[in-house]
Design brief:
about 40% helix; about 220 residues; alpha/beta; 8 helices; globular; two-stranded antiparallel ribbon
Length: about 220
Amino acid sequence: MVATGAPEDAYTAEPFVPGRGGLAALRRAAAGCRGCPLHRDATQTVFGAGDSGARVMLVGEQPGDQEDRQGKPFVGPAGKLLDRALAEAGIDPGEAYVTNAVKHFKFTQAEPRKRRIHKAPTLREMTACGPWLAAELAVVEPELIVVLGATAGKALLGSSFRVTQVRGTVLEEEIHGRPERLVPTVHPSAVLRSDDREAAYQGLVSDLEVAAQALS
């Protein structure tokens, strides 16, 4: 008999994704995902949030520290900034479905009680988590996907994606076997880190206005 490693060694969430059911079934199943090693250190799975009939899906990179603790996406400072930018651009944040390409928080920590520092997920980790995103897209069937940042773009559009080259434009691509319209922009956390935060914020709003126009 051949010995097999832990499920996470396979780097795919596929065995954990239920074959049927809506968002509630997906969320329940995702709570037990062991599709990659990131689940070991994270507090919990942070699944997407929002209505299954949402017209727009916002896809970020991965949960941050606050999201990991609360179990909900975009509840930290970047999420609050995103809500403000969406409203300013004419998109009701309450009517959007928000999720991340990777569902577990990846971080480094110098000492147990020190602050947990966000660490970008690898392409392998993003690919492992892909089946969850595919399942969310299949259930929600959004009219438009807003891609928040380079990592989300690489997860959806491949490793050659460059957010600076295509931000604020409407792309038409096949994603997980479905024709999708996408508007890429920067991640709101990049706005918070910017030296000129006001200019970066206005750039985000401008990109989101393109998304609002595509939905109208």
